[in-house]
Amino acid sequence: MRENVIHLSTKEMPRQYYNILPDLPSPLQPPLNPQTKEPVSPEDLLAIFPMELIEQEMSPQRFIDIPEEILEIYSLSRPTPLYRAYRLEELLGTPAKIYYKYEGVNPAGSHKTNTAIAQAYYNKRAGIKRITTETGAGQWGSALSIATQHFGLKLQVFMVKVSFHQKPYRKTLMQMHGAEVVPSPSNLTQSGRAILEQEPDSPGSLGIAISEAIELAVQDRETNYSLGSVLNHVMLHQTIIGQEAKKQLEKVGDYPDIIIASAGGGSNFAGLSFPFIYDKLRGDKKDLRVIAIEPASCPTLTKGKYLYDLGDVAGYTPLIKMFTLGHSFVPPSIHAGGLRYHGMAPTVSKLYDEKVIEAQSFHQIEVFDAARDFLKAEGILPAPESAHAIKGAISEALKCKETGEAKTILFNLSGHGFLDLGAYESYINNKLEDYQLPEETILHYLADLPDIQ
Fold first, then answer.
1. Is 395 exposed, middle or buried (CB count within 10 Å of its CB: 0-12, 13-18, 19+)?
2. Using CA atoms, how far apart are residues 237 and 144, in angstroms rounded to an integer?
3. Domains and CATH numbers, the chain
4. pTM metric for this prediction
5. Tell me: the pLDDT tens digits for 111-125?
6. pLDDT in tens, 10-60
7. What distance in Å separates the CA atoms of residue 416 and residue 384, rounded to the nearest whole number?
8. SS3 for 133-202, per residue?
9. Measured distance CA(114)–CA(50) in Å, rounded
């Protein structure tokens, strides 16, 4: 029998996070206070984040130690397996070698636990009693509900309303872990009520849910806010994915020519790719291609603009230099809820602007077609978000079939789709829509950007 899975022992798990900030081609522009338009200080962020996370957000250190308490909880499901997708290669008839890092083997079923555990730990150390957050598809909320339970913290989750109804069992999983979950926009906050007054049937957005979560956090000294993507410290925590993948590929004497991951806010993309991009930026792997895959209905990198924008609708967050569709953007109600954010992580945005990485977008139906092919070949039902990476990997593998090149492709299977069966039911019943975001819609939302560019 051929060996199709590469394992690491617990002792081989990374002991440090990789911080890409000191290796970027040029420095990030600083986040700005939306009132003063001056760079934010650590003190500005203390109302919602613990100091240790703020220090990680701005750290100039390339490697940051992972505390033993975090490693102990990680070890319940890490290191995660790396698979060689032999059967998918055969289905496609490609000479390419396809590997995937599978992050769906933990209780939350996605990569989100990597930062959820870390954020809950640092908030506990800071004396925080409750955390508020938003969630789109529910993967982040599920992960944080598990993490807060580990550390005895309360959790309030604002779940984007359309996903709240599309993915009811994500809500149930969070509630089983003691979280309070409400559909956003809600009547619990001033920002939520303002949206409902204007649009009572609003499907919600991550930008709206972030506003609601931050609004509650700033009202209580014992409550902090946690974000599941976009920010530098979140990208940092996820880099254990790529560090493990490098060790696993070394065991079989391989290294990727192409790295692919889905991209909404950027966390799973950064988690897999940043440790490899480190090699590219150093000049050791100049020809390495790294591709972010996003939905055509929320094409932040491929259609957005690289500008300063708010991270939320109400304007509670700092202004961030990123690729954005506009903070008031309300995406169509596609089933890949985790890829519906209006902006992209500043680090990912910088790499795209500097042409270190590439980006592609695909329609919902062709992404689900790829998910079905992957299920047929590999036996794993992927999360709709992860299916975008599969579509990207299949597209590159088929190009290899045309050229005869035996390239090595690595992608991140960032979560399973067992709690997304409603989405796949819509696909089977031909009820999915391939929504193309019109250019005039993008221009409409970008017109609301702060005039500080």
1. middle
2. 14
3. 5-12+67-109+233-446 (3.40.50.1100)
4. 0.94
5. 999 999 999 999 999
6. 999 999 999 999 999 999 999 999 888 999 988 889 989 999 999 999 999
7. 8
8. EEECCCHHHHHHHHHHHHCCCEEEEEEEHHHHHHCHHHHHHHHHCCCEEEEECCCCCHHHHHHHHHCCCC
9. 18
